[in-house]
């Protein structure tokens, strides 16, 4: 298992991808951030 800092960095990268890059079918092809801002 990785160090706490490497796990934290991985989690931050995943959250950025999930919320700002990954398009969500249930949000009509937008990201969660786009859904909140619009």
Brief sketch in words of this structure:
By secondary structure, this protein is an all-alpha fold.
What features would you describe in this structure?
With 38 residues, the protein is an all-alpha fold. Helices cover 63% and strands 0% of the residues. It has 2 helices and no strands. The radius of gyration is 13 Å and the shape is elongated.
Helical percentage = 55-70%
Q: What structural category do the secondary elements indicate?
A: mainly alpha
| Termini Cα gap | 39 Å
Overall geometric form: elongated
Q: What is the N-to-C order of secondary-structure elements (H for helix, E for strand)?
A: HH
| Overall mean confidence score, pLDDT | 91
What's the β-strand tally? 0
Largest sheet: none
Total number of helical segments? 2
Radius of gyration: 13 Å
Protein name: Integrase catalytic subunit
Organism: Natrinema pellirubrum (strain DSM 15624 / CIP 106293 / JCM 10476 / NCIMB 786 / 157)
GO biological process, one term: DNA integration
Topology:
Layout: H1 4-21, H2 32-37
Protein name: Integrase catalytic subunit
Organism: Natrinema pellirubrum (strain DSM 15624 / CIP 106293 / JCM 10476 / NCIMB 786 / 157)
InterPro entries: RNaseH-like_sf
Relevant terms:
elongated; single chain; mainly alpha; 2 helices
